[in-house]
Q: What sequence folds into this?
């Protein structure tokens, strides 16, 4: 309910799923829409070149010891841009709904790690965005019709061919499963399936244009065809089927996008 800035220089999403109770919230580096402004580029460069960054997990960490540290990406876009638009150029950025923009399908309540311990019982189940009314959309179940763009991260990349879920994201080896503590497995597979639908649409149109039979060999995978649509031979990235086509076919791709 905060008023919009008189001049909007950036649209951002916060990295609420990574936030620590009582600490500054980072920006999510997968999405940053900014006004073209050479002075902004120079000002960001000045912050980096100054190098005033305090490492560690204490409250006075990060850029200019202002509390923008201790997270994944604190020294890079996650922490740098949060510090820049919060402290260097305050009241010029607008936070968008992270369930609709830069959608990751992540739990935005204090239910599990990261950065939340079960002994903080007063916060368990509360919104990570510190809403006084405890209002936050459940990004793990946002309807596809309400999502503008997807950031494939915790739901894994579509070419990872990952269809199994397990708490913590590890059943046998590190990263062998989608972390069901952080996301809903069915929602993730729906997002991944949408990507494979788009790849299939591209393949089919390219085949109609060229008649290149090599394209069809890329769609013969049998693993979870309901999700991966023939693009995977098994679970894991090594089972992904790359899109194949003749050199002459690749040269004609642009024809699909020109009238």
A:
């Amino acid at each position: 309910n905060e008023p919009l800035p008189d001049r909007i220089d950036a649209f951002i999403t916060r990295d609420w799923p990574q936030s620590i109770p009582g600490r500054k919230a980072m920006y999510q580096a997968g999405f940053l829409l900014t006004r073209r402004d050479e002075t902004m580029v120079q000002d960001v460069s000045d912050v980096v070149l100054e190098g005033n960054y305090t490492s560690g997990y204490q409250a006075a960490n990060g850029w200019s010891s202002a509390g923008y540290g201790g997270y994944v990406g604190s020294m890079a876009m996650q922490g740098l841009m949060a510090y820049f638009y919060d402290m260097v150029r305050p009241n010029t950025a607008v936070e968008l709904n992270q369930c609709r923009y830069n959608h990751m399908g992540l739990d935005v309540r204090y239910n599990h790690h990261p950065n939340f311990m079960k002994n903080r019982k007063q916060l368990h189940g509360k919104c990570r965005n510190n809403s006084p009314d405890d209002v936050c959309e459940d990004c793990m179940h946002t309807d596809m019709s309400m999502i503008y763009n997807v950031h494939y991260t915790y739901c894994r990349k579509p070419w990872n061919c990952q269809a199994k879920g397990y708490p913590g994201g590890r059943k046998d080896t590190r990263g062998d499963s989608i972390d069901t503590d952080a996301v809903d497995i069915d929602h993730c597979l729906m997002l991944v399936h949408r990507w494979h639908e788009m790849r299939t649409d591209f393949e089919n149109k390219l085949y109609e244009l060229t008649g290149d039979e090599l394209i069809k060999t890329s769609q013969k995978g049998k693993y979870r065809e309901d999700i991966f649509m023939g693009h995977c031979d098994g679970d894991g990235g090594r089972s992904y089927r790359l899109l194949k086509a003749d050199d002459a076919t690749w040269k004609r791709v642009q024809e699909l996008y020109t009238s």
Strands lie at 10-14, 27-34, 53-54, 62-63, 93-95, 165-166, 178-179. The first strand starts at residue 10 and ends at 14. Residues 153-259 form one domain. Helices lie at 38-50, 77-88, 185-210, 225-228, 247-250.
